[in-house]
Amino acid sequence: xxxxxIAVTLLLAAALPAASAMFTPAERAELVSYWNxxxxxxxxxxxxxxxxxxxxxxxxxxxxxxxxxxxxALNIQKGPPSQNPAPQSPEQAEWDRWIQAKVDHDQWLAAAxxxxxxxxxxxxxxxxxxxxxxxxxxxxxLAALVGNPPPFASVVGLLEYTVTFDDxxxxxxxxxxxxRPRFAYYRFSQGTQSFGxxxxxxxxxxxxxxxxxxxxxxxxxxxxxxxxxxxxxxxxINTYDTGFVSVGFIQFCTLADGRHSLCDVxxxxxxxxxxDFARDFQRYGIDVTxxxxxxxxxxxxxxxxxxGEAVLKVVDDKRLPAVFQxxxxxxxxxxxxxxxxxxxxYWAGDDRVVIQxxxxxxxxxxxxxxxxxxxxATLFDRKVNRGSISPFADxxxxxxxxxxxxxxxxxxxxxxxxxxxxxxxxxxLQEASLSQPPEPPx
Length: 442
Known about the structure:
With 442 residues, the chain is an alpha+beta fold. Helices cover 44% and strands 13% of the residues.
C-alpha cells in the first residue's frame, strides 16, 4: 500500500509544471561571461590598511543576535535601533550593567588582538587604552532566560571589493561594517553598505519632477523627504542587518524570503517601465516574478536562484548590490518606482483605525484625526521601521479619555500630544520644513 502511495505521489509530482525560469541558458551563460570579465570584480585589503592595518575589532553577529534575543525575551525592543533599550526593573538594571561590562571587555580584547595583528603592518600601534574590568560570572537568571552569552567582539580581516561596469564606473564596498557595540540587528559580517547622496542634496527641480511623476503632492513630498533623511538616498544599500537586502531612500527590504517591499519596487518598475527595468536589472541577472519574489543569477556559476537563496547571494556577492546602487544612481524609472511604493505601502493618512473608547468602537481614517505634516511624518517613520503605526489608536483613545472627548473630530486641538506620544526616531515637531499641529488649548 505504501509503495502504491509513493508511486502515485511521484506521478503527480511529475505532472506538475516546473517553476518557470526567468533567464534562458544562453542568458545565464552570457551573464557569467560578463561578470567574470577581467577587471570586473576585485577584492583586496581595505583602503585604510596602509595606515590602520588590515585587521580590526568588530561586533560579532552571534553577539548581536544574543542582544536581540535578550530584548525580545523581555519585550523591550520598542525603541529605535540606534538606542539601547532602558531597563524596566532593578533586576534588568543589574543585567544591563553586566552586559555593558562584557561588551566593553570583549571590545577591548578584540582591539588588543587587532593591534597585535597590525603591528607588523603599521608604523605606530593603535592606542586602545587600559583594559576595563572583566564582567565576572553571568547572572544565572539572565543565562537561563537568553542562553550563554557569546563573545560580543572579535578580530576580523577588513577587505574592500570593487565592481566596475562597462563604462568604467566603479563601486567600492567593504565587508565587516563597523557597528555600535550593542547593535542588536547585525546578521552578516560579509554584508556591506553604501549611502549615496541623500535626497535633500539633490537639485530641487530634479527631485520635484520625480515626485510629481510618481503622483505625490508637494506636501507628501515634504513628509517623505523629512523621513528619508534618516534612511538614505535612492542608491543607498545595506546587506548586513535583519532587513537582509535593503535599498533606496527609505530602505526597501527583502527580509529573509525575498518577497517584501524591495520586490514591490522592482515589480512596479517592471510593470510601469519594462524597457528601463530590462536595462537596469535583467541584463545584469536580477529579476522579480509576478508574485513579487526576487530572482538572481549567480554571477560565478550562472545558477538561477529565487527567494531566500537569491537574497543570500546578494548579501554574499558584491556584484549584485552594485546593480541596485547603479540603478538608484542613474535610473529615473527606478527612483519613481521607489516613490510610488513608498506612498502605497507606508503612507498612513488613508489607513483605517479602530479606537476603543469606553466600550465603544470608533472607526475612522488617520487623516480624520491628524492633518499636519509633522504628524504624518511621525506615522510614516513608524510604518517604515516598525511595519505599523501602533500605538496610534491607543494614544488617541487615551487623549480622548483624558480630555473627555466623544468624537474624533474633537481631537484636532490635541494633535501635538499625539505626535509626542507616537514619536519614534525623531521629533518632527522641531522640523521647520513641515507644517505643524495647532497650538494646544490652554
